[in-house]
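Why does residue order matter? Because the sequence determines the fold. Keep that principle in mind as you read this record.
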Amino acid sequence: MKDVKRQEFQREGIRRVVVRGANWVGDAVMTVPALRELRRLLPGAHVTLATRPWAAGLFEGASFVDEIMPVEDGARSFVRSVRGWRRGRFDMAVLFPNAFAPALTAFAARVPLRVGHATDGRSALLTHPVAVPAWHGERHEVFYYLNVVAEVGRMLGEQGGHDFPPRPDTSLKVSAARRREALEFLGERGVRLDRPVVALCPGSTNSRAKRWPAERFAALADMLADEAGAEVVLVGAREEVEISREVASLASSRPAVLTGETDLARSVAVLSVADLLVTNDTGPAHIAAALGRPVVVVFGPTNPLTTRPYSDSAVVVRRPPECAPCMLRDCPIDHRCMTAVSAREVFERSAEALAARRAAEAVG
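Structure:
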């Protein structure tokens, strides 16, 4: 297929698609509706998701992805990606990140159709640059990713090609076998499974400003154990072990520290069997919500309008000062957006979420 500009294409001509995925776990979950829509548009195409190696643990068993192609940073990785994309003989590249490098990779790999937002000076590298919508920053990010796939629909001559699904579906599934393994894993670490299991995620790998204070998480852990009869476990990435240990040392209930002990696949499975997750604005918040689990998220410097978990099961706790959302990674003043949120307030919202889950289970 020759390099082309705007025109319609037949679905039969697009047999192999490479999607450059998001670089952070939460963003990856927010691309799920767009990946589902791409599968609907091209049901017979082989879809390769080029993204971080951890994505295999997130998208395991997903019907909308056929293959994961790992992507790393650096010049050598760029060369490997170009070679891999050439070997893949892809008919189309769909680029979710705004950065220049993914567009350059698709261009250098000679992928005939290259679709992505017209950002970062990369329009000349794309056959189908998509204008950044005027509503960007005012709607949830799931619609920003869907906006790219809507261009694919227009290319294919879809009636209403720029329409979005009425209710974007971010859901992810975990097999019964993986859930059983997760329960066994918890049991081996002394977690009593005859009680509600509440996971706390006190870290955040890409922003210290997003962290609710460790002493508040510790106080919450004790309230959950003493007043709700819950088994509390601390979860997170390897880089967040220190903050989890600090929380555990401050809590008299001594929650189990699982942080850093699981890869993403097992973390997903553990969250799938938890009765509740309480977290900062992090990737696990999006994972748990996508799994249909109740989530309570403490927001401070970031904007829940655009990046909250896209799920009815997610509750946002927030007391924003005038400076929020600032989107800074480190607070230059007194971290008032997070310290304004009390442990008691988060516990009450958590208790409500647990009660609602019990009621739903009794009905269902």
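The mean pLDDT is 93.
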